[in-house]
Amino acid sequence: MNLAGSRDDLLARVYWTPDSKSVFVERLNRIQNRLELVRADIATGASRVILREEDPHWVDLAGDLRFLRNGQEFLRTSERDGFRHIYLYSADGHELRRLTQGDWEVTEIAGVDESSGRVYFVSTSPTPLERHLYSVPLSGGETRRITWPAGTHSILMAPGCKNYLDTFSSFQSPPRRSVFRTDGVEQAVFLEADRTPIEEYDLQPEQIVDVRTSDGASLHARLIRPGGFRPGLKYPAVVIVYGGPSAQDVVNEWMGPSTEQLLASRGFVVWQLDNRGSAGRGHRWETALFRNLGARELEDQKEGVARLVSMGFVDASRLGMHGWSYGGYMTLYSLLNAPELFRAGVAGAPVTDWRNYDTIYTERYMGLPADNPDGYRRSSPVHFAAQLKAKLLLVHNFEDDNVLYQNTLQMADALQKAGKPFELMTYPLKTHGTSGAYRRHFLETLTSFFERTLK
Fold first, then answer.
1. Is the confidence at residue 443, as pLDDT, over 90?
2. Reported confidence tier of residue 328, pLDDT bands at 50, 70, 90
3. For a FRET experiment, which of 4, 76, 271, 365 has its CA 20 to 30 Å from that of 50?
4. Is 413 annotated in the active site?
């Protein structure tokens, strides 16, 4: 196929048309602020751009282009008005109609029933803390909510869209899988909820806390009080953080016997906040961190900590932070850029210099290093090792295939040159996370570190 474009263009997604005579290719420029949908003819190799989208920040891909049976129309989603919604196009890229709109996100096109003329989709309506199945007519019109009760519904639509498998959970309810008709009537229980963890473990209640920032933004946080909580006492707290784009942690879904519950059982208050830049709140919400990773995220995390301390049961002098991957990066960034706030931190598989990381991910948010050298430096913890005051534990798999071990090695080198003490734990795994016996060892290391440094 002659897909033309620049040598630096990214061929991000490829779709066959129903008649197998053409392919559609989603092509991005290197910094990913321009998307072109290219149609290429299989017989001749000739191609042409049929649709173009541009954004002053970046264009996120959903990979959800769906052809209708006639091959002359297709559905795809776009964030061009600030929230991801569904649009219907002709095969030549002409927009026929918009199917959904509102200050909420379509997170997935679950299925298309052409016989009844309805599109099924999962969205963040009525709240980004939940996920629900809706439908909308292909001809346009009102959306219809299908799933209840409140919580998170993961949908697997059957061929023909007459039934779907719903995996439902909430803070109080372990996952339960049932088969429903698309009018919302339950047909059969596929897998009943396993309530063994509730019966066997002393799981602490999870609470959603709304945090209003000084500039008027509304953030969502999860709070877990420690086991045996007694009003009037001051407890140490661990802030669990991810913080990066395209991810959302504070959602009304089942967590079970998690790392957070482990820390709560050891006497820690556990706090987790989704800062600006996180998913589920629209494209404009994500772009707050454009070309300056870390800064906006930390300011929101600081406001979240202030809200937590204001509740009266947390000792502000005994705060810790832990995260993995982008969360490991945020732990380091926070300890070095707000050294007065945290006493200790555990940074797992952290990016320490954004020039080390996957260019397709990094350049989407930061631009090219040559075009944003100051932003790359400000955003990279390796340059600020001398500002460390907290107790620090670095954790990394030696053969991590995502965030390469060189990140931790470079951070260790910078800390040593700055005369800053730290602890280091490495594991001999080839993946990005710990598992099996190594996972248990890590959790024991994590909890013992915070017990030594915060109690």
1. yes
2. very high
3. 365
4. no
Catalytic-residue membership of 220: no
Domain assignments of the chain as residue spans, ordered by start: 92-191, 201-454
**Mean pLDDT score of the chain:** 97
Q: What is the largest CA-CA distance in the chain?
A: 76
Q: 201-454, superfamily in CATH? A: Alpha/Beta hydrolase fold, catalytic domain (3.40.50.1820)
Q: Using CA atoms, how far apart are residues 25 and 47, in angstroms rounded to an integer? A: 10
Interval 221-273: pLDDT, tens: 999 999 999 999 999 999 999 999 999 999 999 999 999 999 999 999 999 99
Among the options 113, 173, 315, 432, which is catalytic? 432
The counts of H helices and E strands in the chain are: 9, 24
In the set 47, 278, 325, 334, the catalytic residue is: 325
| Active-site residue, selected from the candidate residues 60, 249, 353, 400 | 400
The arrangement of secondary structure in 92-191, i.e. its CATH architecture, is 6 Propeller (2.120)
Q: Are 360 and 412 within 8 A, CB to CB?
A: no
Is 325 catalytic? The answer is yes
Q: Which amino acid is at 443?
A: L
**Which residue(s) pair with 426 in the sheet?**
396
CB half-sphere exposure, 400, CA atoms < 13 A: 26
The reported pTM is: 0.96
